[in-house]
Amino acid sequence: MSTRDFIEKDYYAALGVAKDADAAAIKKAYRALARDLHPDKNPGNAQAEAKFKEASEAYGVLSDATKRKEYDEARRLFGSGGFRPGGGGGGGFPPGGFPAGSAGQPFDLGDLFGAASGGGGARAGGLGDLFGGLFGGGGGGATGTRSRQQAASGPARGQDVETEATLAFDEAVLGVTVPLRMQSPGSCPTCHGSGAKPGTAPHTCPVCNGAGVTSRSQGAFAFSEPCRECRGSGSVVDDPCATCKGSGITDQVRTITVRIPAGVKDGQRIRLAGKGAPGRRGGPAGDLFVVVHVTGSELFGRSGDDLTLDVPISFAEAALGTTLTVPTLDGTVSLKVPAGTAGGRTFRVRGRGVHGKGRTGDLLVTVSIAVPTTLDADARAAVEALAARIDEDPRPQVTAAVRAGGGV
């Protein structure tokens, strides 16, 4: 199709819509024409095929706001003789398909379209952009065709899969290897992903030669579309696999062993690269995302990478001092409590917390004073005697405030 053909064609008439039709009306008109004129519905009807191509060409321009604006501008300038060399009469284009300038010099349509779009000499939205993206969406020419062929027939990455895992508290802190049972798309076990019945194999599509797309030329332009024979896959299966119906993919229940790293938190989403659904036509597998749920611990708490532990001690242990043996998630440690330790004091045991990435947290042990709830007569007498001998006010600031009549 020549430049002159493009400018002089009336795409609005081809679709049977008014020039001010909105996008919905244009889409509705094209769908009706495509349904009636499609070559599959009119085999051997050259006239219907020509009208189908004309409608598709028109829709390719009018359905795109940018292309439609440039087309309307081109029609305004050239389509009805609105542009004349030197501003005068004379009808249309010279034989070469381009108008001459006012001084008889060759006229550059790219400059004109650039100026019409407000781009000055930069040619923003110019004729090259209009024609280059007209029938294939940008990057026209051989390079654009190759990229579309690769997208249609090249390897396809597998789907990402998400599952859940419930871990015990210590498993989340220390890390664990768990089996995960899940249902997801996978390579057909019968045909091993080929889509062909066992004993047969797919063969290269004879129509597109494995490209997945077909091209046809009309003048200066090439039209590309998914190959109807292989539906864009690039290969044809003559005898499909009965299990997957030729798709090469089935929904499967599978069990995989996954290493959960140490230090994961409740609700954390872990990405395991390449553990998702297998790819098509030799493409890479997708990723597996595991949402972790962590059960609570009756003994330990967690604060970031540190573990917390509350340990009650007796009044005598607090007053006289003691050595405690406390548990950790990977054994026990000895902790020295000095004499005169007050309740609520926290001791840090380094390196016995969460084994996080690049850092290991600590164990924070907080002691509290355990007060007996019942005392027999002898015990009560002993406590009273001790209280009488201790002449130390345990709350001096409170006592001072009371003596001052309250307040701060």
From TrEMBL:
A Pfam family this chain is assigned to: DnaJ_C
Family matches, as SUPFAM superfamilies: Chaperone J-domain (SSF46565), DnaJ/Hsp40 cysteine-rich domain (SSF57938), HSP40/DnaJ peptide-binding domain (SSF49493)
Binding site residues for Zn(2+) 2: 205, 208, 227, 230
Ligand binding (Zn(2+) 1): 188, 191, 241, 244
Keyword terms, alphabetized: Chaperone, Cytoplasm, DNA replication, Metal-binding, Repeat, Stress response, Zinc, Zinc-finger
Positions annotated as CXXCXGXG motif repeat: 188-195, 205-212, 227-234, 241-248
Entry's Gene Ontology BP terms: DNA replication; protein refolding; response to heat
A molecular function GO annotation: ATP binding
Gene Ontology CC: cytoplasm
J domain span: 10-75
ZnF CR-type: positions: 175-253
Note accompanying the cofactor annotation: Binds 2 Zn(2+) ions per monomer.
Residue ranges of domain CR-type in the record: 175-253
Function: Participates actively in the response to hyperosmotic and heat shock by preventing the aggregation of stress-denatured proteins and by disaggregating proteins, also in an autonomous, DnaK-independent fashion. Unfolded proteins bind initially to DnaJ; upon interaction with the DnaJ-bound protein, DnaK hydrolyzes its bound ATP, resulting in the formation of a stable complex. GrpE releases ADP from DnaK; ATP binding to DnaK triggers the release of the substrate protein, thus completing the reaction cycle.
Family matches, as NCBIfam families: PRK10767.1
Assembly: Homodimer.
Protein family membership: Belongs to the DnaJ family.
Domain remarks: The J domain is necessary and sufficient to stimulate DnaK ATPase activity. Zinc center 1 plays an important role in the autonomous, DnaK-independent chaperone activity of DnaJ. Zinc center 2 is essential for interaction with DnaK and for DnaJ activity.
HAMAP family assigned to the protein according to its UniProt record, in alphabetical order: DnaJ
Official protein name in the record: Chaperone protein DnaJ
Taxonomic source organism: Klenkia brasiliensis
Taxonomic path: Bacteria, Bacillati, Actinomycetota, Actinomycetes, Geodermatophilales
Gene: dnaJ
